[in-house]
User: Fold this.
Amino acid sequence: MSHDRRHFIKLGLASTAALAAGCVESPTGESASSTLPTTGGTRKGPIILSTWDHGLPANVRAWEVLERGGSVLDAVEQGVAVVESDFTNRSVGLGGLPDRDGHVTLDACIQDHDGRAGAVAFLQDIEHPINVARAVLERTPHVMLVGEGARRWALENGFPSKQVPMAPDVAARWAAWKKEEKYWPEPNVENHDTIGMVAMDAEGRFAGSCTTSGVAFKIHGRVGDSPIIGAGLFVDGDVGASCATGVGELVIRTAGTHTVVELMRQGRTPEEACQAAVQRIIRKHKDLGDMQVGFLAIRADGAFGGWALRKGFSYALRTIERTDLVKASNELG
Assistant:
């Protein structure tokens, strides 16, 4: 057994022992609150959170990476890549719903414990935008590449082009939309959306990732929050990490995940910080219609939680002792 794997198991078992001793509070699988106390025992990782039902298989892969001794950055990259490769998914990857011109365009970002980040936006014909985002982080002095320039750079750096034919159900939905051309995001249509993932490893190091095909039938060229550091994802190893899902414009306007992390820095629990970010969105927008936004967060002491604008937001949780789909509390019902 490798040293990394022994360390992973040792810290995980120590966390379980602390739980049994009553040093930390065990959240239940369907509870509205999934935060751990800020005083008393300090909980160590690994902890993985990811958005929606498709976060479950993503968490499985991320956990396997950590068990093999991979870094937490490796884990969040490879975890969400599982969902990118699922061409039946209509909100992530090349199987996603197109923009109004019939093109699937992809956005993704990744950030490590020390705040280094890479992102791509408006990328076409690349299966794994999250891999390209990590390459931007590691191989360039930049944070974000977009559009045809991002695609050209990806091809030059060994990422293959891939075309996925439009599936019959996607073509039918696009054809139906074109009859009215009514642009309005639909909340929770298939109980999934963007996948965002935040994780803390056994040594307390953080990383996060986010990837999406964006809102259906958007204007060609639209970019949402998912590739924007501080909007769809923010990681500060001194404090914690947060990711977002839902209507990106609402998150961008409030620098949503940066807000969550800064509120945790001020002492709020992850759940309180996520709730406050949602409340800020409500205060700043007069008509939210049926729009949805959800936030997840992990704090450096191992506390974690989530909150949403409306009911229906669930997130996948993985720890040493738990593999759950957790329902997040919400503001508007």
